[in-house]
Amino acid sequence: MSDEHLTEIEEENAAFAGDIEAFLLGDAESLNKNKLVYPGDRFIAAKMPFEVRMVTDEELKDWRKSCNRTVRNNGKVENVFNAARFQDLVITNCCVSPCFKSADFIKRVADNEEKLAKKEKRAPRKVVTPEDAVACVLKVGEKDLLVGDITKHSGFERTLDEEKAAIKNF
């Protein structure tokens, strides 16, 4: 975070005179704002941003629960987290545009995949779910960048070390 940005934050916070409750109530509107992000160079070059929204508390709890499973490993019970499934849930649910959940979009991706497979003389990939559509149109690294953009927009902005440094500099 730049010094200029921190100065802007300090000026905004001065209006609340140290009252955290007033700040939280006055800042509630920012919790509903979508953001435009570019999850990779090809989107930057084409000037084609994605519109994303924040993850809600309820969604985060549900997705974490659905992505965890208990397995036995050499007699021990372990929890295994399916990170790829979690990534797919974040992308398909938090992308406002493109809307990966749109039946029309999924059909268009499936039709495009059929044409591309025919041209390349290979079997087409199955495209029937939002996750299938994401796998067809985004590179693996782009998916990582998009999830990172969505989680940052949802408040997971800094590492613990960055947080300590920011607090120390105030």
**Overall domain count:** 2
Task: Assign a percent range to the helix content.
Answer: 55-70%
CATH class of the largest domain: Alpha Beta
Main sheet: strand order: 1-2-5
Coarse shape: flat
Number of strands: 5
Structural class by SSE content = alpha+beta
Q: Averaged pLDDT, please?
A: 84
Alpha-carbon Rg, integer: 20 Å
CATH topology of the largest domain: rbstp2171
CATH architecture of the largest domain: 2-Layer Sandwich
Could you spell the SSE succession in H and E letters? HHEHEHEEHEHHHH
Low-confidence stretches: none
Cα end-to-end separation: 13 Å
Strand count, sense and barrel status of the largest sheet are: 3 strands, antiparallel
* Beta-strand content bin: 5-15%
Give an account of the 3D structure.
There is one protein chain. The protein has 170 residues and is an alpha+beta fold. The chain is built from nine helices and five strands, in the order H-H-E-H-E-H-E-E-H-E-H-H-H-H. The chain has a three-stranded antiparallel sheet with strand order 1-2-5. A two-stranded antiparallel sheet has the order 3-4. Helix 5 packs across helix 8 and helix 6 crosses helix 7. It is flat. The two termini are 13 Å apart. 13% of the residues are buried.
Quick synopsis:
The protein is α+β, with helices and mostly antiparallel strands and 170 residues long.
Helices, strands, pairings?
Layout: H1 3-14, H2 20-26, E1 35-37, H3 41-45, E2 50-52, H4 57-66, E3 68-73, E4 76-81, H5 83-94, E5 95-97, H6 103-120, H7 130-137, H8 140-153, H9 160-168
Antiparallel strand pairs: 1-2, 2-5, 3-4
